[in-house]
Specification:
67% of the residues lie in helices and 0% in strands. It is mainly alpha-helical and 249 residues long. This is HAT C-terminal dimerisation domain-containing protein.
Length: 249
């Protein structure tokens, strides 16, 4: 998050102060390699479509600086601000308080409660929000003493450890919050992959596929690396056990 903030600042500084240096470097490069350098003070003439409507006072330098240099940088800043807006930055920053690295150095009960109140209000009842505060107090004492919880570095490791040690049943609210955070999409890659998969699966000959079947098929296709680890026999045995359990009920 600090790198994102500093990147925004550096790009903004480049926009405000970087033009002269860039122009000097480009001009030097062109002269070195015998590339024609345009007259920057000359009037810019559009080559396609706009020459009759453009303003006469626009110079070549103005066009390159405003229409190309500024526009390119503004697009980069816009993408960063869209992907890492203030709300997303705060969400990710608050989420980092649950990272167990360095003996839970970033752990902060108030920040975690703020995270739940602000971003996950529908996933916890009012009573659970109160209980979460006390669970966090017990958890941090336990985590710094328990050898299984001590040397962890990621939220995934923490969630796995809680499950294997059965402490997810004790700290069930913390476990729920960890799972919610780990399913947080940080990019549009998953969405883009889903649309690509839809084009492959739902063809013209299969356009009447029902929504549930399409969703299941897409999950298998998108997560094919995981799906290939399951054998046909294991799937058959799983469904067989489900049928036996239903019969027993």
């Amino acid at each position: 998050m600090h790198l994102v903030r500093s990147t925004k600042t550096l790009i903004q500084n480049l926009r405000e102060e970087g033009w002269d240096k860039l122009l000097k470097n480009v001009t030097s490069f062109c002269e070195k390699h015998d590339i024609e350098v345009p007259q920057f003070s000359a009037s810019y003439v559009a080559r396609q479509g706009r020459s009759r409507h453009q303003k006469d006072h626009i110079t070549v330098e103005h066009y390159l600086r405003v229409e190309i240099f500024f526009v390119t940088i503004d697009k980069q800043l816009q993408e960063l601000n869209c992907r890492f807006n203030d709300q997303a930055m705060e969400l990710l920053t608050l989420s980092m308080t649950l990272v167990p690295k360095d003996a839970y150095k970033a752990f902060n009960i108030e920040d975690i409660c703020t995270l739940v109140d602000k971003y996950y209000p529908m996933d916890f009842s009012e009573q659970e929000k109160i209980n979460l505060h006390f669970q966090l107090q017990h958890f941090i004492v336990d985590a710094r003493q328990d050898s299984n919880l001590k040397n962890l570095s990621t939220m995934q490791e923490l969630c796995t450890c809680l499950a294997t040690t059965k402490k997810s049943e004790v700290y069930y609210l913390i476990d729920r919050l960890l799972r919610l955070i780990m399913t947080l999409p940080v990019s549009t890659a998953t969405t883009e992959r889903s649309f690509s998969a839809m084009k492959i699966i739902k063809t013209r000959l299969r356009n009447k596929m029902e929504a549930d079947f399409l969703a299941d098929s897409m999950i298998v296709y998108i997560e094919r690396d995981i799906a290939t680890s399951f054998s046909s026999d294991s799937i058959i045995e799983h469904f067989k056990s489900l049928k036996e359990r239903r019969a027993a009920l």
